[in-house]
Specification:
243 residues, 10 helices, 9 strands, globular
């Protein structure tokens, strides 16, 4: 009986192509729409591979309200003409850094099982008006912190950008690295995509980078420079982290 129902539904769909298109359009309308910018914009500024500390060169242009757009996430993941802008926040507590594993609850299946030291995610169209003021991106980053690990009201600074065209997932994303320092190790993994979050000594975190996603590898390889830049911007780096 169940097989007959599936067959009947298939026949009905095939006989009503216009209705099928309407259904697909409705699905698209209900789908999350994420913030993107044209890849050509990055190429005009100067494309790079890996991590760049020259954030002032890239961020103002890539968050310009006249140049950004929102795409359905399923389309953005496959359309290599665009990059999705992703806040990527490093959270430090004294000489430790927050680390977790990417779980199956995360929407990006290509990262499942890998270690990460970056908290963040897509900026969706639901954050309407996010870029209407200069501090809009900053507010979006804070929302991600609250939703992902229940952290709010902390000082932060953007210190670098990440571009990794060496992987399929990296080709359609562009990261903005932030540094945050918290006073204690209280942390809550609020989403199933964040598995076993814990603060680990920086010295341990950088010992073996093979198990990390590429963005985290870039950050850990350049952690001393990232913390030094954060300190220069008024976010003091943990003393022992730079020693």
């Amino acid at each position: 009986m169940a097989g007959a129902k599936v067959l009947l539904a298939t026949v009905i769909r095939s006989r009503h192509p216009r209705r099928n298109r309407i259904i697909e359009r409705q699905k698209k309308m209900a789908e999350e729409r994420v913030l993107c910018f044209p890849r050509k914009l990055l190429e005009d500024l100067g494309a790079f591979q890996g991590l760049s500390l020259d954030i002032e060169k890239y961020l103002p242009t890539l968050t310009d309200t006249t140049r950004i757009l929102y795409l359905n996430r399923s389309d953005a993941e496959l359309d290599r003409r665009y990059k999705q802008l992703i806040p990527y926040v490093l959270i430090l507590c004294h000489d430790k850094i927050l680390r977790y594993r990417r779980g199956k609850g995360g929407q990006e299946i290509r990262l499942h099982g890998l270690y990460s030291v970056g908290i963040g995610g897509h900026i969706s169209e639901e954050d309407h008006g996010l870029f209407s003021e200069r501090q809009g991106y900053h507010e979006g980053m804070r929302r991600e912190l609250l939703e992902e690990v229940d952290i709010n009201e902390v000082a932060d600074v953007a210190v670098a950008v990440i571009n990794d065209d060496g992987t399929d997932v990296g080709y359609v994303h562009f990261g903005v690295v932030h540094v945050v320092h918290v006073p204690d190790e209280t942390i809550v993994g609020r989403r199933s995509g964040i598995v076993a979050p814990e603060f680990v000594p920086i010295a341990d975190a950088i010992k073996d980078l093979a198990g990390y996603e590429s963005w985290s590898r870039f950050c850990l390889e350049n952690l001393e420079a990232l913390l030094a830049k954060a300190a220069a911007e008024g976010i003091a780096a943990p003393e022992r982290a730079l020693s």
